[in-house]
């Protein structure tokens, strides 16, 4: 069910990217839309991380859904921005960008592949691509870490049932005291 919802989220986001009207705008308007979209995404992601840590019944699955929303939205925001810039002035890139070209370029930058077939030509677009490169690192480092930490916190707040079978911990009266968990032992 979770994989289905995550897949439908990605498909829906891509469908919106291809169907929403993206009329050429000035560079300042495009930058404002991109910053606004990224700010809204940051707030949404922080809210999702909080829900994972405090309320998620299945935090690992909720984390998957959060990443299925956050990463594609991030990429599609940049792709829409690049497409708008290219529509306003095709000379900003080495070639005019269709929506597919803009998405392809965004993914190659995100994946650090950089084939070089599409390159930003204008200084302003090069700055935007540099911002995307730095934001990619933040997304992969900080956001992914925050989501994983939220899952860990949630699991510690709501531990599941003890495992059954031969690997189960013996908690009866004759059981030896359990050794402290190294992950939770504080070193002064």
UniProtKB/TrEMBL annotation:
Pfam families: Ion_trans_2. Keywords: Ion channel, Ion transport, Membrane, Transmembrane, Transmembrane helix, Transport. The chain crosses the membrane at residues 31-49, 61-82, 102-122. Residues 73-152 form the Potassium channel domain. Residues 173-182 have a biased composition (Low complexity). Residues 158-188 are annotated as: Disordered. GO terms for biological process: monoatomic ion transmembrane transport. This is Potassium channel family protein. It comes from Actinomycetospora chlora.
């Amino acid at each position: 069910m979770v994989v289905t919802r995550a897949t439908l989220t990605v498909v829906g986001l891509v469908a919106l990217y291809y169907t929403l009207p993206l009329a050429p705008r000035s560079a300042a308007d495009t930058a404002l839309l991109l910053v606004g979209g990224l700010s809204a995404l940051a707030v949404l992601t922080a809210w999702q991380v909080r829900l994972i840590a405090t309320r998620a019944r299945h935090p690992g699955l909720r984390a998957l859904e959060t990443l299925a929303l956050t990463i594609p939205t991030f990429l599609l925001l940049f792709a829409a921005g690049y497409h708008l810039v290219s529509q306003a002035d095709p000379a900003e890139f080495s070639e005019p960008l269709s929506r597919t070209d803009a998405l392809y370029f965004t993914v190659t930058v995100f994946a650090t592949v950089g084939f070089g077939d599409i390159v930003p030509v204008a200084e302003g677009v090069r700055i935007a691509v540099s911002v995307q490169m730095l934001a990619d690192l933040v997304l992969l480092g900080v956001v992914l870490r925050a989501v994983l930490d939220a899952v860990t916190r949630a699991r510690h707040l709501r531990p599941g049932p003890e495992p059954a079978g031969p690997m189960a911990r013996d908690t009866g009266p004759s059981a030896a005291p359990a050794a402290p968990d190294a992950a939770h032992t504080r070193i002064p």
